[in-house]
Design goal:
The complex is a heterodimer of chains A (333) and B (282). By secondary structure, chain A is of the alpha+beta class. Chain A has nine helices and 18 strands. The longest helix of chain A is centred in the middle third of the chain and has 18 residues, at 165-182. Chain A starts with a strand and ends in a 16-residue tail after the last strand. Chain B has helices at residues 26-54, 58-67, 69-102, 108-114, 117-120, 123-134, 148-173, 176-184, 189-217, 221-224, 237-246, 250-281. Classes of the chains: A alpha+beta (333), B mainly alpha (282).
């Protein structure tokens, strides 16, 4: 049930959506395609589903070359950001759709739909129309509909993007647990790094049509391959020519070794304290501390401090020249 | 079978309190009154007057007027051709709307505008156009003057925009992702059209069909020149009504009018029923 993507390229007129992308997605795992909007991750997902044709390259699903297969024959389940509900059909009929198309016996369809509605906790909503459901319920219906046909792979395109923060968080946890039960190879697209870090087994970072890094959440967070991944996965601050996470900086009052600076601003945000330090050469560095760390330091605005990067923490050397415009330099295939 | 849990769902839906049965406020009462007076003056009273005129000769008189050979022939021709035209429009109108919404081609904007021409054109001008194109002096060499085909063609011409215009906005609003979802669930293009797209379009098609039928049944100007108005052959109901009036027989004219009214009403109700059926079946 693995997915092999090799050298896939896709253009929309002059815009290069994907540029020679190769990814192999392991079977039975929950993989996130993470990146900023317009970076090509949704296009890649739609190419896997057959909703979009790649200009170049090859897609293999479960060892079978699927590059030229129409979506009907790929046996993938696809969940859309805006649910794509069949509005004139009841929730039951929505879930049953794929099974009815496959002309399964009525009794089998009924049993299977019952199971799926139970799985997504919509048992008592079977006779409703999609418009009578909340956003979260609709998305669970869409998930049940996609799972009904027992897909080889399950693809979700920003599945929680249209939901409010609380429901999003709930569904995110629920998707993780659902995956632990169902074990179908799952790929989901998100631009939310927290969502990817929390839910995924494996993350593929995609930016400007290229793969920036592939790895587990720990790999990506602790060993970012480049400045882009470092910046995209969480807050960063700059000390000298090093990019570092604000909570990986250590502050000290006694003049031990470290970069000297002066506290210019202290802001408290809930459980964390954000301290801004201006170094001797005028650089403004942000450090985040817990409340206890802050109290132990006993500092205030104007205090002279020393800055140092904690040992074994991820840092990235800043490139001195401006980032190159990759899309403009893409060779034609 | 599952250990995943979630906060129990509150049933959505019935959030809006029922409004029926509430006493009207002064403003809404006034609004309702104005609407009813307006509607009565323009629609209900004239309709009632027609029915009263038709019934002046009693049931026997009405029945004689309607079953008169010549009158019955005009009714059969009018209703039959209108039904046929509506059927053709259901297919062609939907197809044209589809092309206008889904396809990109040179001259699309021009076609958009041209679709409305039969609707905007004064019908007698349409009649003149049809006469000069398909009459005895046809530059195309097609002479259908004085035939039933002339009636059919004139109906087709004036009713063309109705279904196109009712279906087009609905089609444009359809969620393309629903079609993609159907495809990835294994539905062929045809199955997607029949099970997903068509049910969404049915109300619009039915509304357009009702308009197109009603328009055809009462059509006069566009066919009067080309059809020749031959009794028993190409005379339609509206022409028959006029000649009844001219022959000082208002009861007969009203009787034909009442039949047309009843048929139109029946067709509109029937279309509504069909539409509900199709919607539910999916």
């Amino acid at each position: 049930m693995s997915i092999e993507i090799s050298h896939v390229g896709k253009r929309f007129a002059d815009f290069v959506a994907l540029d020679d992308v190769s990814v192999s997605i392991p079977a039975g795992r929950l993989t996130a395609l993470l990146g900023p909007s317009g970076g090509g991750k949704s296009t890649l997902l739609r190419i896997i589903a057959g909703l979009e044709r790649a200009d170049t390259g090859r897609v293999e699903i479960d060892g079978v070359d699927a590059t030229a297969l129409p979506p009907q024959q790929r046996n993938v389940g696809f969940v859309f950001q805006h649910y794509a509900a069949f509005k004139h059909l009841s929730v039951r009929r929505n879930v049953a759709f794929g099974l009815e198309i496959r002309k399964r016996p009525t009794e089998e369809i009924r049993r299977r739909v019952d199971e799926l509605l139970a799985l997504v906790h919509l048992e008592q909503f079977g006779d409703r129309l999609p418009t009578q459901l909340s956003g979260g319920q609709r998305q669970r219906m869409a998930l049940a509909r996609a799972l009904a046909v027992e897909p080889t792979v399950l693809l979700l395109d920003e599945p929680f993007g249209a939901l409010d923060a609380k429901v999003r968080k709930e569904l995110r946890d629920w998707l993780r647990r659902l995956h632990d039960e169902v074990h179908v190879t799952t790929v989901f697209v998100t631009h939310d790094q927290e969502e990817a870090l929390e839910v995924a087994d494996e993350i593929v970072v995609i930016n400007e049509g290229r793969v920036e890094q592939i790895g587990s959440p720990d790999d990506l967070y602790d060993r970012p391959a480049n400045e882009f991944v470092m910046r995209f996965l969480g807050p960063v601050t700059q000390l000298g020519d090093q990019l570092v996470r604000p909570h990986d900086l250590r502050l000290a009052v006694d003049p031990a070794d470290g970069v000297p600076g002066r506290v210019s601003r202290i802001t408290r945000i809930g459980f964390e304290i954000r301290v801004e330090v201006t170094t001797a050469d005028g650089q403004s560095v942000t450090v985040t501390l817990t409340r206890n760390e802050f109290l132990a330091l006993n500092i205030e605005t104007g205090t002279d401090v020393r800055l140092r990067i904690a040992p074994d923490t991820p840092t990235t050397q800043l490139s001195t020249h401006a980032p190159t415009l990759r899309t403009a330099l893409t060779p034609t295939h | 079978m599952t250990s995943t849990t979630l906060v129990p769902d509150r049933p959505a839906g019935d959030r809006r309190p029922a409004r029926a049965g509430l006493p009207l406020t002064r403003v809404s009462g006034l609004g309702l009154g104005v609407a009813m007076v307006w509607f009565s003056l323009l629609v209900l009273i004239p309709l009632a007057a027609v029915v009263v005129t038709a019934s002046e000769g009693g049931w026997g008189g009405f029945w004689r007027a309607v079953t008169n050979d010549q009158t019955a022939a005009t009714l059969r021709l009018t209703v039959g051709t209108a039904l046929l035209v509506t059927l053709v429009n259901v297919v062609m109108g939907t197809l044209i709307a589809w092309v206008l919404v889904r396809d990109r081609f040179v001259g699309k904007r021009a076609l958009e505008v041209l679709i409305d021409v039969p609707f905007a054109l004064p019908t007698i001008v349409a009649g003149l156009v049809l006469l000069s194109l398909y009459g005895p002096d046809s530059p195309l060499g097609v002479n259908i003057a004085n035939t039933r085909i002339a009636v059919f063609l004139a109906f087709l011409f004036v009713t063309l925009p109705f279904i196109v215009r009712t279906v087009q906005p609905v089609l444009a609003e359809l969620d393309p992702e629903a079609e993609e979802a159907a495809a990835s669930l294994g539905a062929s293009r045809f199955a997607t059209f029949r099970r997903i797209i068509l049910p969404s379009l049915t109300p619009a098609i039915a509304a357009g069909a009702a308009l197109s039928f009603a328009r055809a049944v009462g059509e006069y100007g566009s066919l009067v020149l080309l059809s020749g108005n031959l009794p028993m052959r190409t005379e339609v109901a509206s022409v028959r009504i006029l000649s009844s009036i001219e022959n000082d027989n208002p009861e007969s004219a009203a009787a034909v009018a009442v039949v047309l009214l009843a048929v139109s009403l029946a067709v509109i109700v029937l279309l509504d029923v069909i539409q509900r059926r199709v919607m539910r079946r999916g």
